[in-house]
Specification:
342 residues, mainly alpha, Alpha-Beta Plaits, globular
Length: 342
């Protein structure tokens, strides 16, 4: 599943790159912009979510960003933080870096608890900052200004440029994060990822959790040893922790059949690995299909507008959201359309 979702992301990235190159040539592109690229716009999605809840308007600037956010949040409520270990490409990279760590060090190196616990709180600090900035600070008028701002309209292209043409600072930051992830397995996921923190909060209410049958447990401790989140699975009856991302490595390590399993309770509603994978895939397929049928998957920014904007991508107004309108577009019809207003 992880490789499948990674290949999907790569496919979307290649399609989007070719589409951007056609735009840069100044001619009408023959390719269609892949909406899935908006999955890399979580802040825009969060802003769109609040705007939708307050106004009932599902904005069409980056609609698939909101669709994907809703799907991912649904996985958190149903399947713990399964998105992190079954879908997220960064989660897959973290797993391979953790394996590289195992090759270098005979014994896994972890931070002492006095350092580990405070650092784990960093991702919640980042999450709180983003939630406060969007859900508390921004009113409807501010939300609308951001959604229809020049910056947000090309946020997908700006994100592409961030990865396609990384600055020296970006390369240094990525290099440091990779080095830290080799030295301390799952460094990004464990300490810094606000998306994972959001899912962790929701996962506390998840229907399915790892269950341990105390009667058949032989106290071998193998489950705790393989847990990437370093949870004491071997002494828990039910794993409720927000750090559990349902990778099922503990289940695989358990030598006694049906002692550890994903389920609603200890007596019923056990969820086999295959069923878990199917539910995860179906949530994405159904969610995106419904969005297509409801016409909230493709954005409504015409290619002609993208071509105009991409020629000025380095102008100050596109560096961050200032709520300004570039001089060249004041009479171009690229402002907020009546159909876009609540």
């Amino acid at each position: 599943m992880q490789v499948g979702f990674l290949l999907t992301c790569i496919w979307i990235g290649v399609e989007f790159t070719l589409w951007v190159h056609q735009l840069q040539s100044g001619s009408e592109p023959t390719l269609t912009r892949p909406p899935g690229v908006e999955g890399f716009l979580p802040i825009s999605a969060l802003i769109s979510l609040k705007y939708w809840l307050l106004t009932g308007v599902f904005n069409r600037i980056h609609p698939s960003a909101l669709v994907l956010l809703l799907i991912i949040l649904t996985t958190g409520v149903l399947l713990k933080k399964g998105f992190c270990s079954w879908v997220c490409p960064v989660g897959l990279l973290s797993e391979y870096l953790a394996k590289f760590h195992a090759l270098i060090f005979k014994k896994s190196k972890d931070l002492p608890k006095p350092f580990d616990y405070p650092l784990r709180g960093l991702k919640y600090v980042l999450l709180t900052f983003f939630l406060w900035a969007v859900l508390v600070q921004m009113d409807v008028a501010t939300l609308e200004r951001f959604i229809h701002s020049p910056y947000n309209k090309v946020a997908d292209v700006k994100m592409w440029a961030f990865f396609a043409e990384p600055s020296t600072l970006t390369l240094w930051v990525l290099g440091i994060l990779i080095a830290l992830s080799v030295a301390l397995p799952y460094f990004w996921c464990r300490y810094l990822c606000p998306y994972g923190a959001f899912l962790g909060v929701l996962s506390v209410f998840s229907l399915f959790k790892i269950q341990r049958n105390e009667k058949t447990c032989i106290d071998c401790g193998k489950c705790a040893k393989v847990c990437p989140a370093r949870l004491t699975v071997d002494v828990l009856q039910r794993v409720k922790s927000d750090e559990c991302h349902a990778c099922l490595q503990c289940v695989d390590a358990c030598p006694v059949k049906d002692t550890l399993y994903m389920g609603v309770t200890q007596k019923k509603a056990k969820l086999p690995r295959l069923a878990y994978a199917i539910i995860m895939v179906v949530l994405f397929l159904v969610g995106t299909s419904v969005a297509r049928l409801a016409s909230v998957w493709q954005n409504q920014i015409p290619n002609t507008e993208y071509i105009q904007r991409i020629q000025h991508l380095n102008d100050p107004v596109y560096q961050h959201n200032r709520g300004q309108v570039p001089e060249y577009e004041k009479d171009s019809g690229y402002g907020i359309q009546d159909s876009e207003k609540p």
